[in-house]
Amino acid sequence: MNKPISTFQEIYAFVSQVPPGKVTTYGQVARKIGVNNPKVVGYALNSEAMPDYVPWHRVINSKGTVSKRNLGNGELLQEKLLISEGIKFDETKKIEMKDHLLDI
User: Fold this and answer.
1) What integer pLDDT is reported at residue 8 of this predicted model?
2) Which pTM does this prediction carry?
3) 60: which of 4, 16, 98, 103 lies 20 to 30 Å off by Cα?
4) Distance between alpha carbon 94 and the CA centroid of its chain, in Å?
5) Which element (helix H / strand E) includes 80?
């Protein structure tokens, strides 16, 4: 009998499919895998159990901005990683969603 996949594992698998230069939101991920609360996605992406290969930095909030993270300066790291992938921010630190939001 196969062991069922945990919600966190489903989140990691989905987020791992977001390509460089694209972002998705916590809400989009939650809806796609059938989770009622986008905060669960945030918990998964802030978990110490998250595998290193998961591109957590490609998940942003519904406002188009980087959210606070448990890590010290995690928001700055996330912003730098996104910029390195060609993600553009406007002067208010919002991501240009029309150009970078993954269509799911």
Assistant:
1) 96
2) 0.90
3) 4
4) 15
5) helix 74-84
Domains and CATH numbers, the chain: 7-100 (1.10.10.10)
Task: Give the 3-state DSSP-derived string for 40-78, with helices as H, strands as E and coil as C.
Answer: HHHHHHCCCCCCCCCCHHHEECCCCCCCCCCCCCHHHHH
Torsion of CA 4, 20, 100, 64, to 10 degrees: 60
Those residues whose C-beta lies under 8 Å from the C-beta of residue 60, and which sit 6 or more positions away, are 23, 24, 25, 26, 66, 67, 95
- List C-alpha distances in Å: 56 to 37, 59, 70, 92: 17, 6, 13, 22
CA distance 13 to 41: 12
